[in-house]
Amino acid sequence: MIQNDTFIKEINDLINMCLGVFFSGKIYKDNENSKNNKIYRELQNFISDGKINDGENLYYDNIDLNDTEYLQIGLSFYRALNDLDDKFLHENNFSRKEIKIGLEDLLDAYNINFIGEKWADF
After folding, report:
1. Confidence band (pLDDT; 50, 70, 90) for 3?
2. For residues 65 and 71, what is the distance between their CA atoms, to the nearest angstrom?
């Protein structure tokens, strides 16, 4: 379990660093004035319904690389996933490794690389 706790912390640290650098540490909040709010709400619904893969697909099908708010939504999505317990992830066919891969893909899409190489697999 210690290895998994360390992995959770590493994912959160990377997300927090990105949020800190680009968004003053703030996760995306429901914002009625945002054109992206619909996607954000749908992602939250997919998470609560346990349809994590569908949520990830929705995000990447609609990604707008010219909109940094969309990056903030993605980081917030992966943070919410990382906050879920392992049992919920497993029951809904998702894993910490998939969170890590999705986060790496998101950062790659926005050409963000703080660590030089991809993380080692756990």
Report:
1. low
2. 8
